[in-house]
């Protein structure tokens, strides 16, 4: 009888170890990734955002750089795994050109959206580091509307 109880203890311990091994093997691979986001303004107009997003403002014919370290998931670092800073910004997202013309309610998945990672040019510059560049052009300015 004592031998039977000892066998049960060994089976229980074996079961727990097996369960931990199974759960441990199901976890995703996590890594740190660094994104260097370059916002290039090729227009003659100042690009500004609403209050609270001024760190992304870009003067005419210049570049603003924003660096962000985030947690990535998967087997390898790829550009499409990055999230654009403020991509999931909850409120209406408006881009202003000299406070005269506006791109109103810019959505995350709009074509030509600064909130969509697919619209950035990606360049791998390190093992877990990408340079991601979005360029504002006259076409963006021409799509903007004049507000009274």
Describe the structure.
- The chain has 148 residues and is of the alpha+beta class.
- It has one domain (30-146).
- It has two helices and eight strands.
- It has helices spanning 2-25, 138-143; strands at residues 30-41, 47-48, 62-73, 95-97, 101-103, 121-126, 129-136, 145-146.
- The strands form two sheets. A four-stranded mixed beta sheet has the order 3-1-7-6.
- Strand 4 (95-97) and strand 5 form a beta hairpin.
* Strand-residue proportion: 25-35%
First-to-last CA distance: 90 Å
Shape type: elongated
Helix/strand order = HEEEEEEEHE
Largest sheet descriptor? 4 strands, mixed
State mean pLDDT (0 to 100 scale): 80
Structural class: alpha+beta
Strand order of the largest sheet: 3-1-7-6
Number of extended strands: 8
Low-confidence stretches: none
Q: Can you tell me the number of structural domains?
A: 1
**Count of helix runs:** 2
Helix content percent band:
10-25%
Task: Determine Rg (CA atoms, Å).
Answer: 24 Å
Could you name the key traits of this structure?
four-stranded mixed beta sheet, four-stranded antiparallel beta sheet
Summarize the SSE layout with pairings.
Layout: H1 2-25, E1 30-41, E2 47-48, E3 62-73, E4 95-97, E5 101-103, E6 121-126, E7 129-136, H2 138-143, E8 145-146
């Amino acid at each position: 009888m004592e031998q039977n109880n000892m066998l049960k203890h060994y089976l229980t311990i074996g079961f727990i170890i097996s369960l931990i091994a199974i759960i441990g093997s199901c976890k995703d691979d996590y890594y740190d990734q660094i994104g260097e986001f370059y916002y290039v303004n090729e227009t003659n107009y100042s690009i500004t955002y609403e209050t609270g997003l001024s760190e992304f403002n870009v003067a005419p014919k210049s570049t603003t750089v924003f660096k962000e370290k985030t947690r990535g998931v998967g087997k390898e670092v790829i550009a499409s795994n990055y999230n654009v800073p403020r991509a999931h910004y909850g409120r209406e997202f408006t881009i202003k050109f000299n406070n005269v013309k506006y791109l109103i309610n810019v959505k995350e998945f709009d074509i030509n959206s600064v909130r969509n990672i697919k619209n950035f040019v990606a360049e791998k510059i390190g093992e877990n580091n990408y340079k991601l560049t979005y360029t504002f052009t006259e076409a963006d300015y021409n799509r903007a509307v004049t507000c009274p």
